[in-house]
Amino acid sequence: LVCVDVQGAGRGTAREETTHLTPREAPSSSSATRLKRLIKRHLQRARAGAHAADEESRRRAASSGSAPASLCEALGSTRGLAPCLLAQFGLNLTIIGLEEAFSLFCASDAHGLGLQPADLSASLTPLGFALLLWPCVFPAVERRVGAPACFRCGMGLFLCAAMLIPSLQPWRASPRLLWGGLMAAAFTRGIAGVSSTTAISLIINSMVHTDVGLLNGVAAAASSLARAIAPALIGVVFAYGTSSGLPFPADFHAPFYLLALVCAATW
To answer: φ, ψ for residue 18 (rounded to 5)?
Structure first.
């Protein structure tokens, strides 16, 4: 005779006991076999139901315990994430703003370098080489010094480029010095862009353990906002600096020095 602990089946601790009866008390062998199979079948169903209920309760507990109710709670639950998002904003403002200011400065004849379109394209060639080659070098550098140091180095290089570019204007009469400065500025911008953007992505992803999609979306939104603001902001500052007649540093140097301040604040 097979006895089943029915209450234990709901808790996943069901057990079965077999009691040997005397020949007079024992049923026929076929009836006992059918009874045992029936009880085993019900026991398996009870165990499966208890397992599914446990899995559902664990899933609900995990989801309710890890998913914050709002974006503010998601940002607050990760310590140090808000400064990283601000750094992401400042980085993209610097990248796009420096591209805008460089193009305006090189194209302006009265307040810049007065380069022709072909010369402007040639001045960006080292930037392309840096963007192509530096990603092969960056992993080894990051493993040696770490992502935060790589980010600071990138922002420092951006600051140097922002200070170097407007200082090239007195060198218009010396093509060798002018093109040497343009090549150095372009190559520096390429190395700085790869180092800083890759490093800030590594930093943010290492800090985020829950709501990964939400917080990476917020970081992408901060980058997009900076990229939308930078061209208009730098264009207005450059136009005002070149038309107002104000002395140094509020002349054509103004957009570059503004970006240098952003680099220093982000660093």
So the answer is: -115, 125
Q: Is the pLDDT confidence value at 2 over 50?
A: no
Alpha helices in 108-211 (DSSP H): 117-123, 125-145, 147-164, 175-207
Quote the CA–CA distance of 85 and 89 in Å, as a whole number.
6
Residue of 145, 231, 157 lying closest to 193 (CA atoms): 157
CA torsion sign, 167 to 263 to 146 to 199? negative
- For residue 4, the surrounding DSSP H or E stretch is strand 2-4
Q: Is 172 helix (H, G, I), strand (E, B) or coil?
A: helix
The structure tokens listed for 186 are 């372009």
Q: What is the C-alpha separation between 105 and 108, in angstroms, rounded?
A: 5
A 10 A CB-CB count for 240 gives: 14
Token pair 């353990």 is found at 209
Calpha distance 157→102 (Å, rounded): 15
Residue 186 CA to residue 125 CA, distance in Å, equals: 8
Distance CA 112, CA 163 (A): 14
pLDDT at 60: 56
pLDDT, tens digit, 9 for 90 and up, residues 93-123: 999 999 999 999 998 888 889 889 899 899 9
